[in-house]
Design a protein that fits this description.
CATH superfamily of the largest domain: N-(1-d-carboxylethyl)-l-norvaline Dehydrogenase, domain 2
Number of helices: 5
CATH class of the largest domain: Mainly Alpha
Structural class: mainly alpha
Largest sheet: none
Number of domains: 2
Strand content: under 5%
Helix content: 55-70%
CATH topology of the largest domain: N-(1-d-carboxylethyl)-l-norvaline Dehydrogenase, domain 2
């Protein structure tokens, strides 16, 4: 999950981090698509992003791959099945009255 660990809870931290990373990648993809459709130099755009406050290892690694239309998965797909049950557990805890959480 990064270089350090901050105790945000066993289920909460990974889901929060995945949400943030997913939103970042969505915005990144949208920006690259807009740049490509506007006939901008997308390689130069990546250089500009990397040189500024938005530069980060995820964009640095995924950017060139995306420009090359390489969208290979970089994590074991078995881990994707973890998020759905965790999200379901977290949302049932938030129901009014907490009845779903009490019944389990």
């Amino acid at each position: 999950m990064g270089l350090g660990f901050v105790g945000l809870g066993i289920m909460g931290a990974p889901m929060a981090l995945n949400l943030i990373m997913g939103c970042m990648m969505s915005a990144f993809c949208g920006g690259l698509t807009l740049a490509r459709q506007s006939q901008l130099d997308t390689a130069e755009l990546l250089d500009i992003l990397d040189a500024g406050a938005l530069g980060n290892p995820m964009f640095r690694g995924k950017g060139p791959q995306m420009l090359a239309d390489n969208f290979a998965v970089a994590f074991p797909l078995k881990h994707t099945s973890i998020s759905a049950p965790c999200c379901a557990l977290r949302t049932t805890d938030q129901q009014p009255g907490g009845t779903a959480a009490q019944e389990t």
